[in-house]
Design brief:
The structure is a single chain. The chain has about 260 residues and is α+β, with helices and mostly antiparallel strands. Among the domains are: about 60 residues, Ribbon (Cysteine Rich Protein); about 55 residues, Roll (SH3 type barrels), CATH 2.30.30. About 30% of the residues lie in helices and about 20% in strands. It is built from 3 helices and 11 strands. It has a 5-stranded antiparallel sheet with strand order 10-9-8-7-11, with no helix packed on it. Strands 1-2 form a two-stranded antiparallel sheet. A hairpin with a 2-residue loop joins strand 1 and strand 2. The radius of gyration is 42 Å and the shape is flat. The chain starts with 16 loop residues before the first strand and ends with a strand. About 10% of the residues are buried. InterPro entries: LIM-SH3_domain_protein (IPR051759), Nebulin_repeat (IPR000900), SH3-like_dom_sf (IPR036028), SH3_domain (IPR001452), Znf_LIM (IPR001781). GO terms for molecular function: actin filament binding; metal ion binding. Keywords: Acetylation, Actin-binding, Cytoplasm, Cytoskeleton, Ion transport, LIM domain, Metal-binding, Phosphoprotein, Repeat, SH3 domain, Transport, Zinc. One of its GO terms (biological process) is monoatomic ion transport. Its main location: cytoplasm.
Length: about 260
């Protein structure tokens, strides 16, 4: 059975139903109680389970209590009761876990003496440990210049190491990538994985499998094929564990390509 509308009390069908303020409404009936402006779930403000627009939303007001003699008497009585309860609790807990120390001149003298002894012990320990493991460096203009120079040298070394560690592709190789080492004959090129030499580029017979490039690869030899991520490779044949032979459908190039940069389709 369809529930009644919160305003017109007529049945509300599912296609036009709005569930809000614990009631069901027609879309046309969900309007401000004052100006009848149509509202939505993001523009209404509820008050006493009735929708209002932001202009006619009832403002809450505070009640002013007159400071009459009767109210003053009640206030004073409440304060007396509070003080009586506090004193009663204080007497019950007296001597249980804590004690009240009177701040007499003698206690102030003892406290001051303890502070002086603590300060003397701290200074003595500081002098003993001076130069053991750390030293105080004065921040002079000369030290600031040395620090700035060291920061610049560190930054230059970082960029230099970063350029050296860049690989030929614009994406990292798979997690199971083997370590590479430089060949003395060509220091600008990365060698093949240790213990594995790249075979000669010999075209295998047709009818190979289809692969897709997972990473981009820039060809370093004339018999290699450059790849972009997502390229489709046709007639792919496995040459050995690290290299394949195939044709890049996008460029039409045929040649060698690294096996860990592609996946079967």
């Amino acid at each position: 059975m369809n529930p009644p509308c919160g305003r017109c009390n007529k049945p509300v069908y599912p296609t036009e139903k709005i569930n809000c303020l614990d009631k069901y409404w027609h879309k046309g009936c969900f309007s401000c109680e004052v100006c009848k402006m149509a509202l939505s779930m993001t523009t209404y403000k509820g008050f006493e389970k009735k929708p209002y627009c932001s202009m006619h939303y009832p403002k809450t007001s505070f009640t002013i209590v007159a400071d009459t003699p009767e109210n003053l008497r009640l206030k004073q009585q409440s304060m007396l009761n509070s003080q009586a309860l506090y004193k009663e609790d204080f007497e019950k807990n007296k001597g249980k876990g804590f004690s009240v120390v009177v701040d007499t001149p003698e206690m102030q003298r003892v406290k001051k003496t303890q502070d002086q002894i603590s300060h003397a012990l701290y200074k003595e320990d500081f002098e003993k440990n001076k130069g053991k493991g750390f030293s105080v460096v004065v921040d002079t203009p000369e030290m600031q210049r040395v620090k700035k120079t060291q920061d610049q040298i560190s930054n230059i070394k970082y960029h230099e190491d970063f350029e050296k560690s860049r690989i030929r592709s614009d994406a990292p190789p798979p997690e199971n990538r083997q370590d590479y080492e430089e060949q003395p004959s060509n220091p600008g090129r990365f060698s093949q994985p240790v213990g594995q030499m790249r075979p000669a580029a010999v075209a295998p017979p047709g009818g190979g499998k289809r692969y897709q490039a997972v990473y981009s690869y820039a060809a370093a030899e004339a018999d290699e094929v450059s790849l972009l991520e997502g390229d489709l490779l046709l007639d792919v044949e496995q040459i050995d564990e690290g290299w394949m032979f195939g044709c890049n459908q996008r460029t039409g190039q045929r040649g060698m390509l690294p096996a860990n940069y592609v996946r079967p389709v």
